[in-house]
Amino acid sequence: TKDRNGIDQVVLRNPRGASARVSLYGGQVLSWKTDQGEELLFTSSKAIFKPPNPVRGGIPICFPQFGNRGALEQHGFARKKMWVIDENPPPLHPNDSNGNKAYVDLLLKPSEEDLRIWPHSFEFRLRVCLGADGNLILLSRIRNINCKPFSFSIAYHTYFSISDISEVRIEGLETLDYLDNLCQKERFTEQGNTLTFESEVDRVYLSSSNVVAVFDHQKKRTYTIRKEGLPDIVVWNPWEKKSKSMVDFGDEEYKQMLCVDGAAIEKPITLKPGEEWRGRLELSIVPSC
Ligand code: BG6
Questions:
Q1: Is the minimum distance from the CB of 79 to ligand 1 under 6 angstroms?
Q2: Which of 62, 89, 244, 283 has CB 3.0 to 4.6 Å from 136, enough for a Cys bridge?
């Protein structure tokens, strides 16, 4: 299918009726729905889908830089590039598929322009897979096809759709150190048992366990984030003031979204020539009480 700017999108469906939609612009997942058709990812009503804007919602890929932690533009260039579909992708590994064949491989290689600002040849293969159980799996493989090493950071900047920010808590981050982007990236240690929200939050939790859960009391449901190769977890909610300053975000929309990203930020990944890095994120929902 195509969106209204003529950008190709791929829709994945599983036999139970769950679906996921991926745009070639940014290699960005823009929708993930349950078998009842309920949307699980937030996209702003003010999102701008016209390149070269990044799209506010879904799962933008921040690569090869996270935020402004480097010389590149905010969150790197990958989310503003056209990716291409690999028509002959390598087969699915049974562990990667959760028993379903609904997947697509998107590829990103640097353009001449990208090489001028970041002089490293790479191939980024993003596999998006919808499991038979409705889980959404994002598997990234990044290969150094250059003759010198390079380092990068990456985040799956996941905008979860939630009932109300005051009804939500995150578990799995207790006792961890985090970098606070609101305090000159200073380092703190999480004291609370769970993380709840009453003001702007913009943090990178370091070396978290491989499972983090987001509980939504009002919706009686839990998002589970399982990750491999992605040590860090970003937590972001812009709250009231910052929401008003973003042109592509509604003033009140901060109540309905929470970004929780599997990421590798504090310690950048270094790849030698010919080496490949793999990072896997699996998102699922379960009812809770
Ligand atoms: C977060 C960053 O994860 O992404 C924030 O830590 C930033 O500082 C946010 O505001 C959104 O970034 P952008 O570029 O999509 O507006």
A1: no
A2: 283
Q: Does the CB atom of residue 249 touch ligand 1 within 6 A?
A: no
Can the peptide bond before residue 54 be classed as cis, meaning omega within 30 degrees of 0?
Answer: no
Q: How far apart are CA 155 and CA 161, in angstroms?
A: 18
Q: Is residue 218 part of an annotated ligand binding site?
A: no
Question: CA-to-CA distance for 212 and 234, rounded, in angstroms?
Answer: 11
Cβ(158) – ligand 1 distance below 6 Å: no
- C-alpha 82/C-alpha 218 separation (Å) is 38
- Compute how many other C-beta atoms are within 10 angstroms of the C-beta atom of residue 179: 20
Considering only CA atoms, which residue is closest to atom 15 of ligand 1?
56
pLDDT, tens digit, for every residue of 31-55?
999 999 999 999 999 999 999 999 9
The token pair that represents 82 in the structure block: 């056209």
Q: What is the pLDDT of residues 212-237, one digit of tens each?
A: 999 999 999 999 999 999 999 999 99
Residue stretches of the chain with pLDDT short of 50: none
Q: What are phi and psi of 165, to 5 degrees?
A: -55, -30
Question: What is the residue whose two structure tokens read 């379903």?
Answer: 100
Q: Give pTM, 2 decimals.
A: 0.97
Give the list of residues 6+ apart from residue 147 with CB closer than 8 angstroms, or none: 273
The whole-number pLDDT of residue 200 equals 98
Q: Please give the Cα distance from 22 to 162 (Å, whole number).
A: 21
Q: Note the pLDDT of residue 165.
A: 98
